[in-house]
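Input chain follows. Return structure tokens only.
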Amino acid sequence: MKNFFTGFAYPFRAFGLAFKYPKIIMYSIIPFIVNLAVYVSSFIILYSEIISTSSRLTGSGNPEAGFFTEILHILILVISFVFLLVLCYFIIVIVGGIVSAPFNENISLVIEENLTERKSDYNPGFWLDTWLNIKSELKKLAFYFSLILIFFLLGFIPLIGPIISVVLGTLFSFFFNALDFLDYPMTRRYMTLRQKIKITYSRPMISFGFGCASFLIMFLPVLNIILKPLCVISGTVIYFEKEYGKEFDITNKI
């Protein structure tokens, strides 16, 4: 369990590095603005629609509405609020991941060059770099949702299905978040998704601890957008400090 808590602590250790290098703040501004606009607008539009629909169906707010009608309306709003938090998490995973990928790559590169004290050989040019990172995000998302769909379907198994679905889905989300934020140094080494998964699992307890902390951070409304660069920073730091790529470090041709 020591390695789990070691991995869990990494995002919180990244605060100092975030302010140490001014470029990191600069690279964080555009994805912050875009992701905040997407997150807030999605939440407000959807929740407003839910409030309106619930009021119309239950009759809440009418003078003749009874006590239990108002309780039902409040219950619907509470459940919908929790559901929207989950939905907005997926929106940030999908939209935020794609939009911020090139900027997160630059943040990760700044950290790598300062940790290794050498200039990176990775210089594919802006457009190719952008394409490589977006392609990497799309492959990860396909991997994520293909397994999440399986875990969702397991939930229909009588009695034990929902428990299995929640447990496996949560553990996999921990692993995916670790993979997601460890990804940038591996993308710069042109590794395949299969290699990235293998590398992430090469330090299982550290990865799950780091992924757990990252998952919790990414689940926090609005704060997830502000704190996401910390996960990018810590993912790069943990990759080099724990020598994730030592056994697999390769540089392929594009």
